[in-house]
Amino acid sequence: MTATPGLIPRGARNPGSQGALRHLNQERLVEFLLANGPSTQAELARGTGLSTATVSNIVRDMAAKGVVATSPVTSSGRRALLVQLTDTGDIAVGVDFGRRHVRIVLTTLGYDVIAEEQVALEPGYDVLGAVREAAHLLDRMLAEGGHDRESVLAVGVGIPGPIDRRTGTVLQGAILPEWVGITRRELEDVFGFPVVVDNDANLGALAEVTWGANRGERNLIFVKIGTGIGAGLILNGQPYYGFLGITGELGHTPVAEHGVICRCGNRGCLETIASTSVMLESLGRGDGARTASDILRRGLAKDPAVLRVVSDAGTAIGQAIGNVANVINPELVLIGGPLVGLGDALLDPIRHGIRQNAIPIIAGTTTVRISSLGDRAESLGAAAIVIKGALAGQDG
């Protein structure tokens, strides 16, 4: 499988390079056009704060790629060039594999969702079997929308586990152990398209600053609370991947010195005291709580045992977030996962935990709220890495 020319996975570029800066400026232009519609180059310069020369160069490159169309107009009595996003017919695909589901979205390069579907998967599913099921679903979605396979730029795939970005391989530590060892090449063979693979929390963070109500935020932490606890980091407006791509493993932060052994091999990790699985164990299987949905339902009904378990877990999660906040000083912490419907019953103990561990000025200036995208975040983030790679073109 040969990758689409110019499709550059996020994190593959040097964040301080000229190519990365050019890519970031291009994203600012696209975001302005999405928010304001067709605009002159002068309006783009004023709206984005970029120089007119920079805007002119980027618009010329984007027009050559067919991302924008330009036409002469008269503005304030002067000749000007109107710029507008074009419908290239290209499609970005985002796929999110969860413990019990796969969700697929189809989007345009203009960040319009044109199709979206989710199907259930059996717990402990065969991975390649589930990928084949997703590939069949994708084929059906394309056919129903009248889209040719040639219009698909690539497939972004989100997986709940650490990814070695050098090889696109799922590493030990994934919540779904069946995924360990699966490679990007195997996914490409099944889907029949170029694939970009990433951790689901990273994609949730990217989606929030690309699609959600938090577009434009420069420094945030997206925390997904589920069977595992992962975090995606946006630093200075860009996803942060570190050296290998293994960042945000919040669930494997030791928080209890004499705690139980975690599946990662360490002792007392956050995941061993605050994941939804541990919450269910604390409530007792015989008490009618078998899934995260049961926790949500009973929490909304003000069940005191559930609220206590959620409070204890939330405080521990907040303490771990507070430690990270002391290092990166985020503007915003967003909470995702199946329990977000609990609202302040979940957020208040998280905020309390942050206040316990973050220095006062950071705790007092960090906003904590629920994800704006719900269970769509990861699939939209998967589509976003395809869009951003395609818009980067040869800028790498």
UniProtKB/TrEMBL annotation:
Stated name of the protein: Putative NBD/HSP70 family sugar kinase
Regions that span the bilayer: none
Taxon lineage: Bacteria, Bacillati, Actinomycetota, Actinomycetes, Micrococcales
Family affiliation: Belongs to the ROK (NagC/XylR) family.
SUPFAM superfamilies given in the database record: Actin-like ATPase domain (SSF53067), Winged helix' DNA-binding domain (SSF46785)
CDD domains associated with the record: HTH_ARSR
Keywords: Kinase, Transferase
Domain HTH marR-type: 28-78
GO molecular function, one term: DNA-binding transcription factor activity
InterPro entries on file: ArsR-like_HTH, ATPase_NBD, HTH_MarR-typ, ROK, ROK_cs, WH-like_DNA-bd_sf, WH_DNA-bd_sf
UniProt-listed Pfam families: MarR_2, ROK
